[in-house]
Fold these 4 entries.
Entry 1:
Amino acid sequence: MRELSAEARLHFYARSLSRRSGTGIHAAALYGAFAVIAGILFGTLSVHPF
């Protein structure tokens, strides 16, 4: 098997790192959206306008 050059290894590492951080960002956005929806829902249930 052929040895990878230092540049190829760095590129591969950067791509795998960005893929992992992208997944984390998507998960945080999803959980944040659920938190906003829950906050609005519980906030409107606790307010009695009439």
Entry 2:
Amino acid sequence: MLTYPYTLTPDTNGTLLVLFPDIPEATSVGDDEHDAQVNALEALEAALEIYFDERRPIPLPRVANGSRYSVTLPAVVTSKVYLSNEMIRQGVRKAEMARRLGVHTPQVDRLLNLRHGSRIEQVEAALGKLGRRLDVSIV
């Protein structure tokens, strides 16, 4: 799964500012560290939606460099990030993916929607049509 480090900086109004060095569009605030962590995941997923909508490659997280704060994306969201990046890398549009999967384009739209509860098997099948394999492990 993908784990994105973030920084917490005290803001002038007593809140904590959340910034992701790898995804500059992802910003949030929190009243305390716990609140900031909850808001960090929401901010990260919202920023990733921008990348999906604009068909931009999503930067993968760099090494945490000692950052003590990070957010790990859920498995299905991580797999969708990899799918989107691979489609962009190979120049495969949604209509072409739908053709390869034998489905209608709205089904591919849902597959690339972070808020849709896709089954991991669907993402795995799409990656297979791109010549890639989803690998799951426990650490």
Entry 3:
Amino acid sequence: MKRIFQTAALLALGLTSLASASEKPNILFFLVDDMGWQETSVAFGPERTALNDVYETPNMKRLASEGMLFTNAYACAICSPTRVSLMTGQNAARHKVTSWTLRKNVAPRENTKVLLPPKWNLNGLQPPGSNVEATIEAKTLPAYLQDLGYKTIHVGKAHFGAKDTPGANPSNLGFNVNIAGAHMGGPGSYHGDKDFSAVWRGGGAIWSVPGLEKYQGQKINLTEALTLETIAELKKTVKEDKKPFYLYMSHYAVHAPWEADRRFIDHFKKKGLKGQQAVLASMLKSMDKSLGDLMDTLEELGVAEDTIIVFMSDNGSPKNCKRNLPLRGHKISGYEGGSRVPMIVHYPGITKKTTRTDAPIIIEDIFPTFLEWAGMKEIPQNDGLSFDEILNDPATDRSQRPLFWHYPNSYDQPAFSSVRLGDLKLLYWHATQKLELFNLKDDLSEENDLAAKQPEDVKRLAKLLSDHLRSTKALMATVKKTGKPVPLPDEVL
């Protein structure tokens, strides 16, 4: 789909714009960390919930009023896999970065009572030719966008590759500019007067956010500091570079540690919120203000109509938070609360105001979509499917396109693989080798297991999931009792 620019109107006003001159839109991908499906005043579910009235995200509402809500958008259930899928267009079963990364050659501690974890790519994503063990090497989304004439800007959380590997630095993965991105999946602190570090609490320098030294010692929130740096870079880019930009605004918020944004915490306490929920509300408000500040900046620079904005979260809300009902489960879980995420797309001149779509999409779909928007003629092979056509037709039928998840690890939550096809979702639990079947249209909360009642659907989806795992050469854990790999879903029927 080609972008519709208001060229005649611009010429009539004697104005020109970066994107209209090149016919390549700017792309702002605003990714939030650990934000649940309902942790917003925008209702993504069929009905408003209590959380929609607790949290305040007016700029998300503003963006939604101008664009399209994706009510069936998914990421992986945990952070590093989502981010590698974004960068490569590969499903987690294929790229094999299936849990979170941090230290080189060191995996997170797992529950090994029943299963021994596979040798997954614990060092994460690396640029081609790195020759680092236990990694995937790939040319990335921003690297391809560079080839298409884009300036690529990374801000905030990276978490692509382990510490002391090339992939720990976003500049090695296709970004012209890297602001505060490194190996870690969370900040040491959100407070400038704690130097954005965990050293003050004995957490070690490995969590310290780099590149923001000028804010250290100040009573400023990390989210605000990142936003100020982003605005400065945007102004420079639009004024000096004269080329389209890809801005990956990847906030550390609202990932732990739970530290209040001092600008907003008293407001939520006065509303009656207490403890961690009040802190989370202030962090969400802080993130939302950043979104609004960036939208305002695009308008001030005269490029708002030339910039596509995509808002998304990298996985569901952690178990420390209030449940995102009606969804079951939480971050890392195989249930919907682990992977269903809020998503909004505003494509000026294309998306109609205040529209919604139920068409399912998943994180690897970002890769081909952004490259299509950037004008790439032949998209590199990937596991995604562009959702561009959905922007023109919210009723686009994707009921026959399967979505897959694969988590063969046992960090915090049980290992699982799953597939969604249409309204049906099949979950396979590796340790117990149990299959569960849910109809998400009738049972969004995944309370009614239909496996015994619909054996033919179980068999059909088990084969579909197993074929995917075979074709991607997915890694499976080892059953301690037998010393053999966990069997595939169609092998236990």
Entry 4:
Amino acid sequence: MSDSPTHRTIAVRDANSADIDLLARWAIAMALETEHKTLDPDTVRRGIAALFAQPQRGRYLVAERDGAAAGTLMLTHEWSDWRCGDWWWIQSVYIVPAHRRHGVFRALYHHVATQARADAGVCGLRLYVERDNAVAQRTYAALGMEDAGYRMFEIALPRRLDNG
């Protein structure tokens, strides 16, 4: 096997609770890089830990390139009554800068797509992307994804610390 960046081994695995600090660092870096938002590290760690505590909410995958942690994505589910199946949402994508443009996201995506195709209850894959992130949009299009034609609206609600 060659040492060139394009000939390195990329392995994808399910993340586990030992990855919480790493996933939190990556989520914080991604928010700052893509949306210029500074996230509270404790809130992010609690949010990631909550997913491991309640796996029905989703899961994280980690890609390792030659044994080094290189990137991640989170999968969540959305029920579609129109299709009587689940959309798998690809979220919280982060690739370590030194590993970008070396097939890390492609490996994560193909891993997810293979699992989705094998699950009769999955009707498709979705993700959202910042409207000005042309590089990411080209990457997703190159993998066969299409603009779904939707705009997203939201309202943020105040959070109570006791969650009660």
